[in-house]
Structures are given as structure tokens and as C-alpha cells.
Amino acid sequence: MAVSPELLEILVCPVCKTPVKLTPDGQGLKCSQCRRVYPIKDDIPVMLVDEAKIDAE
Amino acid sequence: MSKKHNELVQKQFTKTREAFSVYVVRDTPEVLEEKIRFMRPERGERTLDVACGPGTLALAVAPQVRFACGGDLTFAMLRQALEFQRERGIANAAFACCDADHLPYPDGTFDLVTCQCAFHHMQKPMTALIEMARVMKPEGRAVIIDALAPESDAKFELHNRIERLRDPSHAESLRLTTFLRMFDESGLEIAREALRRRERSFNRWMLRAGVNPGDRRYRETRELMEQSVKGDAAGFSPRVEGDDITIAHTEGMFLLHRKPSSAP
Predict the structure, then answer these.
(1) Which of B7, B97, B158, B207 lies 20 to 30 Å (CA to CA) from residue B17?
(2) What is the least distance, in Å, from the CA of B70 to any CA of chain A?
(3) Which fold would CATH assign to domain B3-149+169-199+248-262?
(4) Is there a contact between A10 and B105 if contact means CB atoms under 8 Å apart?
């Protein structure tokens, strides 16, 4: 069971509230504003600031 | 919530995931049904259950709405929720790990935002309530359900001391008057409310927190609970019955709308 498309449509970055987009490898959700990447573990998006990594680009 | 308190909550609920979700369910099917009736979910709605635990409420609401979301701070709870969702073949529900203080949703996303039995785990319940109101549609509604603490200072202190001894991730059960002030300050007003007395077995209540009768924490909590029998000093109305104690929580259920003056 992949992450629900409707959930992906509404999820935003919990910090800056900008929509997040699936990363090319499908393993994370990236905020285009602050570049935080939130991991997807076992098909569950982990939208916790402490779990996010800031992407260099 | 502070990082330290978040870790305490995650540790407690990771440890108790099985007891909490499988063996000692909090609500009987009748109580769960009563709560859902109180929320009045409708066919076309999108809903969010904040601090959803193993997804009990979100999955029960899903068949009555268009799309049901659940969010929780503890990842292990959400894995359990997803497992239940797969077992039951529910397609219109989804879960995300999140902090109630920083919900990962835009303003005005949900028709119905619920949170049951979780405010007492929050260090900043007002922040969570403001977040719930933020993600609720202007004409949407929020439902808060939680155990209420006694109003008297002495009973309030002992009540919360017992709760914290049982479960270190318990922050503070709030008084009815505190909830009313918080609703008002967050721009919400009560459309409907109900108070329910929920009687339960002390031993099962302890088990749900992952505490067994042989544990030191069990003995200490039980000792305090027994001491509170005289004069109902902690507001649990305890009755010792053989090896067990029957206790009661007063549960408040509040259906909230945005105050007309707060609508954007």
C-alpha cells in the first residue's frame, strides 16, 4: 500500500506550511521553501521536524 | 511540545502499543459508536483525528465520510493503524506521523477535526487547539473528548499525581473551566457538549499503560488510589472490590464551531 494520493495532495511542511513533493526516489517528501525532506517509512510520511534532513539544493 | 516530553510520549506509547490497541481497548464498541454519533460525520467530508493512536476512531469514521486522516506523534502506533486498515480493507483513510503543535496541513483543510483522550498528554494544549482550529474549514467543526480533572485544587493535584505515577507521559488532565477558557481564547464556541461518567477497572487501566500488578509502579499507584478513597480525595470515586478497584473518569465531549467573529 503506497502513500495515499489524497494525503500527498494535502500534506504541507509543518514548519513553513508549503506543499511538499515526493522526492525522485519516492522515499521522502521535500519542502520547496525550506528544503527539508521528511522521510516516508513503511508507507507512513513522518512529518516531524526532528526527523527531517535539510537538502543541500 | 518540548523534545524531551515528545520523547517521553513516544517511549510510553511505543511500549504500550500492543496493550493499548489490542488487549485493553479503552472504549467498548457502544462508547465508540456514541462518540461517532456525537461528531455527526457526513458522507462528503474530509476528517482528521489528531493523536489518533492505533487509528481506532479514524478507521471507524472512514466508512461514513469521504476521506479520514489520522496523525500521531508515535510511529509505532501508526504502523498498528495501517495494519488495522489493511486487515479491514479500508481504502479512504491515511495516516501521517506528526506533532499536534505543528500539523502538516494547510489552513481550512478539514470539515471535522477530532482529538480524543490526548489533551492530557500535551504540554501546550492551547497550541494544539489553535492548530486544530487552523486546519478546520471556516464552517467546519472540531470535537474534543478528554477526561476532566476535578475543579478543587487539592483534588486536582492528587488526581494528576496518580495519573502521572501510572503514566509518566501524562502531562495534566484539565478542568472543565480550563477547557472552556481555551475554547473561548482560540476563537471556538461550543455547539454541543456532553459529560459522561466512564467507570473502569483499575487493574485494566494500569495494564493499558503497560503496568502489571507485580510492578513497583502498580503498587505505588494503587497505594495512592486507595488512600484517596476517604473523601474521594482525587476525584476518581474509587470503590475497592476484591483485588480490583472500580474507578471513574468524567469525560467531557465538546463539539465546537468557529465563533462568528473569528470566521475569516
Answers:
(1) B158
(2) 10
(3) Rossmann fold (3.40.50)
(4) yes
